[in-house]
């Protein structure tokens, strides 16, 4: 205990300042080093996106039917038209990315989010979508409907 009564206070004040400055220094160092560490960190190896997928069995499709399937991590849509033509597109609406669906009643691809409409060539024909859907290539290999990114 100090005789002057202020020395304990002085030491604790000094200790507090040491801790506070040390903490601030560590925080500053972390703020500087974290982005550097993130920059040099080896990125995790994600699964490569496929360029070709089997979308469906042809026998399972009916004319005037659409089916959403996964193309890697993206949704895609396969349509067998009333005339028997196979068409495939990205199913991500070009407006805000909602997944589109096939409307057999109007034979169009429709986005329920904001009533966007596409024809069977993927062209945006009504509503807010600003551009056509990305079209994919479709081929039959035996009974497999094979879809490829063009
Ligand atoms: S997200 Fe499809 S119309 Fe808006």
Key words describing this protein structure:
150 residues, 6-stranded antiparallel sheet, alpha+beta
What structural class is derived from the secondary structure elements?
alpha+beta
Strand order of the largest sheet: 1-10-9-4-3-2
N- to C-terminal separation? 83 Å
Biggest sheet layout: 6 strands, antiparallel
On the 0 to 100 scale, the average pLDDT is 86
The fraction of residues assigned to DSSP E strands is 25-35%
Query: What is Rg?
Result: 30 Å
Oligomer: single chain
By DSSP (H or I, 4+ residues per run), the number of helices equals 1
The general outline is elongated
Low-confidence stretches: 1-6
The helicity comes to 10-25%
Order of helices and strands: HEEEEEEEEEE
Q: How many β-strand runs?
A: 10
Small molecules bound in the structure, each named once: FE2/S2 (inorganic) cluster
Structure notes:
The chain is an alpha+beta fold. 23% of the residues lie in helices and 34% in strands. The protein has one helix spanning 7-40, and strands at residues 52-57, 65-71, 74-80, 86-90, 101-103, 108-111, 116-118, 124-126, 135-141, 144-149. The strands form two sheets. It has a six-stranded antiparallel sheet with strand order 1-10-9-4-3-2, with no helix packed on it. Strands 5-6-7-8 form a four-stranded antiparallel sheet, with no helix packed on it. Strand 7 and strand 8 (124-126) form a beta hairpin. The structure holds FE2/S2 (inorganic) cluster. The site of FE2/S2 (inorganic) cluster (FES) has 11 residues, from loops.
């Amino acid at each position: 205990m100090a005789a002057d009564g202020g020395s304990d206070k002085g030491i604790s004040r000094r200790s507090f300042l040491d801790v506070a400055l040390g903490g601030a220094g560590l925080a500053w160092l972390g703020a500087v080093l974290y982005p550097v560490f993130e920059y040099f960190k080896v990125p995790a190896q994600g699964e490569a996106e496929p360029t070709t997928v089997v979308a469906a069995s042809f026998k399972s499709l009916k004319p005037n039917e659409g089916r959403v399937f996964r193309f890697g991590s993206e949704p895609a849509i396969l349509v067998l038209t009333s005339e028997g033509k196979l068409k495939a597109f990205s199913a991500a609406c070009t407006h805000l990315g909602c997944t589109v669906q096939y409307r057999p009643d109007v034979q169009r691809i429709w986005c329920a989010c904001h009533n966007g409409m596409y024809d069977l060539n993927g062209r945006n024909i009504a509503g807010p979508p600003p551009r056509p859907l990305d079209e994919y290539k479709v081929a039959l290999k035996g009974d497999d409907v094979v879809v490829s990114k063009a």
